[in-house]
């Protein structure tokens, strides 16, 4: 009688947690494992329960990439990466194969950002066959000749599915535009808006991916939700993590995955920087308005308004300085000074000016000199004057009294510290102008000895310095604003400090020479 050829496999002593090997699971396993081999050798046929396995019928996309050659044992080995996406759900796997595509071993590595796809990856090379014969293929990343290849493969897989995400997202975004719920119209006006749109797209598409019902709701509700998401992306990009965790309740793994996508895109950082620069430019514009407008400069108060606003914007006086004393006595200046130097001694006796009075400092800013001088500090003590007050003899004597009090008090001595004392207002009297004509002093200085300098500064000078400093980034990010934007910024952010000062449509008047 005619005997059928074939192989009988018996599997004994299965472990307790073994899941049954159903014909369907076996077919799927053999399809993914033998997909390349069967496509290369169509005469080879594999059957499960008399049904032939046909991997090609299950393939959705098939993409190949050439990798750099590898020299191993004085031989040149070429590499090819093939990514097959499946129509039905399968376990994602990476196979290390011979040059024909026959799997030698699985690479147990999960690639973040690809979990929503069903795929198999086949890395093919004679190099892998050689390592398999030598018994070192199973070392994977620990094999020096293989480690850089696997790193490259991981990057390629991520990039492949990023492109696939982009293709899918374009279809989804076109759908939202047709529905009238997409919150952007026309082309992006600058690189910042372009970055903002990309972050929005990433967020919105991934929300749909993880919460499908989000895209199936009422169109009015979806339009509102998209507008809200756009506001968060454009104005509060740092809150995206909170949205992922607390509002959308995405699992930790998905939060990390999405955060990594955003970080890799380097987009949220662009938006954050742009937001900071835009807010600062608007602040400068608004400050310029209230300081120089003939109506507002008369009523803008120093202590209750100007002082409060500037204490919240110390970057205006120097990016590397931080606020260390706000509206406190010279004694508090000493305490902070000693604390910054790491000196723990009680300050029992008050610091007084030469006339015995206790001076109240508006602001003191502090910075470390730099990495090469970690024990050195620099302080700026600032005396603010309302715009209606011109800098004259009494204002100069006031700031000098602070400087001389520091110079005469031995408790400030012996420490590596630079001291700068500023008095700031709109205009100078003839007395102040004469003080500035002293020889052998830096421009703007009226006194300098050892590590102490006293300066006279004007608001217009500081405003121009800040505009110049921010100008490059403004041009690169294509940020535009007008005076009205600046006034509105001050009114909204500092409403309690600008009451009775900022008026509607003031910025339409030309008032600065």
Q: How many helix segments? A: 16
What structural class do helix, strand and pairing data support? alpha+beta
* Total beta strands: 13
The whole-number mean of residue pLDDT values reads: 82
Low-confidence region ranges = 506-513
- The Cα radius of gyration reads 35 Å
Helix content: 40-55%
User: SSE string, helix = H, strand = E?
Assistant: HEEEEEEEHHHHHHHHHEHEEHEHEEHHH
CATH architecture annotation name of the largest domain: 3-Layer(aba) Sandwich
Q: From the 3D structure, determine the CATH topology of the largest domain.
A: Trna Endonuclease, Chain: A, domain 1
Number of domains: 3
Shape call = elongated
Tell me about the largest β-sheet: 6 strands, mixed
User: At the first level of CATH, what is the class of the largest domain?
Assistant: Alpha Beta
Strand order of the largest sheet: 8-9-10-11-13-12
